[in-house]
Design a protein that fits this description.
Elements (H helix, E strand, L loop, with lengths): L21 H9 L3 H12 L4 H12 L9 H17 L5 H23 L10 H21 L5 H66 L4 H20 L9 H15 L2 E8 L6 H20 L2 E10 L2 E8 L14 H13 L3 E7 L2 E9 L3
Parallel strand pairs: 1-2
Antiparallel strand pairs: 2-3, 3-5, 4-5
């Protein structure tokens, strides 16, 4: 069963801070050494003041730990910072590059700190808002960077630097991305297992337990108990091993349904084996009806085990229905016996097939054959 993931937010630390607690808070959130984060801000400050701008932006956006800062207030502070930075663009050429890059970095940070690494592939609720805000900031930064008027060559240089930064970040984040992929894979497998267990529990409740209840109620009727047990055995065997299909469309599904009905109505066990499959048309449904009649006759007059073997091969369907009953003389069957003459022989002849009956003291075998279009 999947569990709700708690999203960790970044805060400005109040303990051990040097200025505003931004570096300490980011280090605690990312699991990095605080000295490395501080050094990163210092080094970035030498590149058009990006470090100072980013630090100020984080200070405006990140709430202080143990303090209920309003999201609206932080967004207003950040908006004021961005507006002020853009107002300084004409006066400071370095700001023309530094501020847009800081906005791009801040947009990416909003996505990663507010959406969270375990939710980035499936955000919902507030995470959608953070994702949209982060993408918007990145787009604003890119547009501002492209509008600086530094020329195509400068933009290409900036793009090359940005590409190198992305490659470096990708190499650093590769173990994290691999861990995220493994986590999602494990979660998906656990969800599949949970669904399988739920389906199995439903099947056991709706089928097995109800059949056991009926068997307990008819404990004094051995024939009824045996019939219930056979029906449940066939149902479970079909559910576990046999492909599911519409009895009106597939030969194997239609014969399986007929065998289940016969086992419920007569004291016989039908052992059905199908090799190959056939989509039913009019002639196929005639074959199913003739096979059903042969199974009914075997279950009614012979009882015991009835074997049904179906083979679909080379444009021909052949069905063998065997029993171990006392047998009968097929030539002595009177014409008014519609079960054999019409339901089996006549039906197969009208469909373009054949029906052969062989019977002796060892049992009866009915062979039904029907040509089909491959």
């Amino acid at each position: 069963m999947s569990t709700q993931t708690t999203i960790r937010r970044a805060y400005r630390e109040t303990r051990g801070r040097w200025v505003g607690g931004v570096a300490a808070g980011l280090a605690e959130h990312l699991g990095w050494p605080v000295a490395a984060v501080r050094a990163l801000f210092v080094v970035a400050s030498f590149f058009a003041g990006i470090g100072v701008i980013a630090y100020a932006a984080y200070w405006a956006v990140l709430p202080q730990r143990d303090q209920d800062d309003s999201d609206t207030a932080r967004l207003l502070a950040f908006a004021a910072l961005v507006i002020g930075g853009f107002l300084l663009l004409p006066a400071n050429p370095w700001m023309q590059v530094g501020l847009p890059l800081a906005v791009i970095a801040l947009g990416a940070t909003v996505v990663w700190t507010r959406v969270g690494p375990t939710r980035i592939l499936r955000p919902d609720g507030l995470q959608w808002t953070a994702l949209g805000l982060g993408i918007l900031l990145v787009l604003v930064g890119v547009v501002a960077l492209a509008a600086t008027g530094l020329g195509v060559r400068s933009l290409l240089n900036v793009g090359a630097v940005a590409l190198l930064l992305l490659v470096g970040v990708g190499l650093i984040a590769m173990p994290w991305i691999a861990g995220l992929y493994r986590e999602l894979t494990v979660e998906r497998q656990e969800r599949v297992r949970s669904q399988t267990r739920a389906e199995l529990a439903t099947q056991v409740h709706d089928s097995v337990l109800q059949t056991l209840t009926l068997i307990r109620r008819h404990a004094d009727d051995p024939e009824q108990v045996a019939r219930l047990a056979r029906a449940e055995e066939r149902h479970l065997r079909s559910w576990l091993y046999e492909p599911q299909g519409d009895p009106q469309m597939r030969l194997s599904a239609a014969l399986s349904a007929a065998a289940a009905r016969i086992e419920s109505d007569y004291p016989a066990t039908v052992e059905l084996v199908c090799v190959g499959e056939l989509e039913l048309d009019e002639s196929g449904r005639a074959l199913v009806a003739a096979t059903t009649e042969a199974m009914v006759n075997a279950a009614k007059h012979a009882g015991g085990a009835v074997s049904v073997y179906v083979e679909v091969d080379d444009g021909r369907v052949t069905v063998f229905v065997r029993d171990r009953g006392p047998g009968f003389d097929a030539a002595a069957v009177p014409p008014d016996r519609k079960g054999i003459v019409e339901s089996m022989i006549g039906r197969m002849q009208r469909a373009g097939g054949t029906c052969e009956i062989r019977s002796d003291e060892r049992g009866t075998e009915v062979t039904l054959a029907l040509p089909v279009t491959p």
